[in-house]
Amino acid sequence: MSHAECNRCWKEAQFLSMSFLNTQMCCDDCLTKERDHPKYKAAKEEEARQVRAGNYNYNPNIAVS
Q1: How far apart are CA 44 and CA 22, in angstroms?
Q2: Residue 24 carries which DSSP code?
Q3: Residues 4-43 pLDDT 10s
């Protein structure tokens, strides 16, 4: 099974998913931490609105440290 590197913590992971805050592909640990970001809820809601409107390339481009 191949592994990929998290775009946020740079650790290898079996599975990556895209962040709701930007276009980084992240491991589960980083995505769990992301939920505590103050803009997470609004970014997730806006992403859903954008997809319903047909915009599948939406990027809020919110910085994550």
Answers
A1: 11
A2: -
A3: 999 999 999 999 999 999 999 999 999 999 999 999 999 9
Structure tokens at 8: 């946020």
pLDDT in tens, 33-47: 999 999 999 999 999
Please give the pLDDT value at position 1.
Answer: 61
39, two tokens: 């803009």
Q: How far is CA 54 from CA 48, 51, 58, 65, in A?
A: 10, 5, 10, 30
In the numeric block, which tokens belong to residue 16?
């990556």
> Do 6 and 25 touch, CB atoms closer than 8 A?
yes
Q: How far apart are CA 19 and CA 1, in angstroms?
A: 23
Domain ranges in the chain are 4-52
* CB distance 19 to 34 below 8 Å: yes
